[in-house]
TonB-dependent receptor
Amino acid sequence: MSAQQNGKIKGTITTSDGELAAGVNIILKNSKYWTVSDENGNFEFNRVKPNTYTLQVSLAGYETSESEIIVAESETASVNLQLKVSNKELKEVVVNSKKSILSKKTDYVARMPLTNLENPQVYSVIQKELLMEQVAVDIKSAVQNSPGVVSISYPSGGVGVIFRGFSTGINARNGMETVSGRSSVDLGNVERIEIMKGPSGTLFGSSVSSFGGVVNLVTKKPFETTAAEVSYTTGSFNLNRLTADVNTPLNKEKTVLFRVNMAVNREKSFLDYGFNNTLLFAPTLTYKASDKLTFNIDAELYNVNNTRRTYNTYAATSGITNPNDLKIDYKKSMFHDDNDAKSSATKVFAQAEYEISDNWKSTTVFSYVGEDVERSYQSYAVWSSPTQVARRVGLWGPIYNNYTNIQENLNGQFSTGSIKHKFLAGVNYRLYSSNFSGGTTFTLDNIDITTPFAPIRRKAVDAGLVLTSSPVADQKTFSAYACDVVNFTDRFSAMLSLRLDNFERAKVGTVEGYSQTALSPKLGLVYEVVKDQVSVFGNYMNGFQNMQPVTQPDATQLIVDPVYAVQYEGGVKAEAFNKKLSGSVSYYNITIDNATRTDLNGYTFQDAKQVSKGLDFELMATPVKGLSLVAGYAYNDNKIVRASQAANIDGNKATGAPENVVNFWTTYTFQNKLKGLGIGAGANYVDKNYFTADNTFYMPSYTVYNATVYYEKPSWRLGLKFNNLTNKKYWDFWGSSQAPTNILANLTIKF
């Protein structure tokens, strides 16, 4: 029989909790064929003689299973198998089922199952296993494991990031819109963090993405075995943090699965005043209604009571160039912690996934996010010299922001002749409603901080507040998008994507509403130089922001187009040495050539230009058993090419855009003697970045060193983390001083 008449067997193996199973032994009984599944759970047998075979799969801790498979002439037999945990090994398997920190498997980045090497976009995935190594207790320290990403704390109490020269919030959760601008994020329900680089408006829209990219949080999902984990972390500044993760099937058929994550956090600030108390409750339910239909429902209820960091500004005549010039003590607060904030976030996500056929799938998603601010006292310091400051306070709240999204996605695979297609089509309807009230910001006093002073109390603030309320216009957005990944060969593919957004803002008060339509394309090419190991790629990506009409000084109205950012990028990705190395390097150019500017007479024009270009490098490796490395470098040159005549900033660096950013982390776990003992160390470097567009005031560069030591057994783990070993004084973009040397101790028990 000729080779051309032989067939193939291809398949994917998953564990009982839905994870891809690597290192599984696969044997065709009574034949010469055997193999081992790769990191993505895939395996393949080529040139198999037509016959009926018994396929045997085995992995330590799981039941050995057998299934019959028929191989026909010149055809490929496909099989998907799920391992079942043996009762004998159940506990150990649950404890040790860790995902590799190198894994970049995701269905959210492209909204379809593309591998990293197939995707013409650069992205990072930060697994919870890496965060556990680092005893990460907040989102700010977690995101800095991605090249070029720098965390920021908003004066409103939320968190965000800067990368590729632009800032963005934590705006996506399981691929849908979320918000964290006033309530922040807790890591207690986070499985992994996905950071997509570059304008991503085509698939995510303007409300989720910035011109720098998208940050997507993937939450923890239920699985088929019973397991529980309790973790307690204590440390400097009176930190006490307790988390619990409980998972169980609710019926013996394991078609109804339930998981709940909880986190309680209590801590003081390293400043002499300030605190942060939070509570998270996150239940999740999966219901397998049939072999084809699965429902997933999850929620997050997050309550926050804390103090906001002071927002510092600097008079042009102050002589101050950076926070190091200030004569105030690094740990001193000018405001008492009874000027607090109280907010809550409610997040609900419901998904119905239906397999129409072997090649087509429908996914219907509902998402609701509500962020409510009961009160938010926010403090401001206006510096007129290194020693003279005006203290101001404002009250924000009650405020609510509600975001509702309904989305339908259709994913499929088909062929046109020898060309294969992976196809996505989707629609999204978004409704935003809000209400705003609060007390106007006012100055309480001017002080010389070199002389004794008392912190401002809330009673004094309340006496001077004038309460106001402002109506907020509702927003509606209808979006339609499509993406076709065309595989011309098994190595060469093209991605063709397009999104249409129709944005409507209602009339509010005397301000007229407006409607705007944006069209956002995305194109990409990928060629695998070494099959399944090295690929080269290029992309054209587009992001946009809707802009309301502008009333000019002569009472005429300027209809403003959406502001577009266009990126061109090219680079190389690698997943080599049997998945022990994952890396990428790319060069990008992001141009905004229709930004708005205002001239000396107050007239607005839409002809300003900004160019952000740079280099991203990422390397993750597990070269030998027990050793892991995570490293990244990003160079960014973000300049205002053309701006307002009045501003006189042509050629200046954009604000919040550090030129060089470096991240590094490595750990080693002993394998023989002292097995389970591990050590780790790392560093983060952030270049100086300008706070003002005239480039006169900046945040200094800094390098922070961290280290860890831990001891891990199958049912428990003890870890110590040492942060900011050199006691470096440094500030984020908004001028918030960061914590000095501190220690965390963590105990985790698994059941």
Residues 90-96 form the longest helix (7 residues). Confidence is low (pLDDT under 50) at residues 86-97. The first strand starts at residue 7 and ends at 14. The helical segments are 90-96, 128-133, 139-143, 201-204, 458-464.
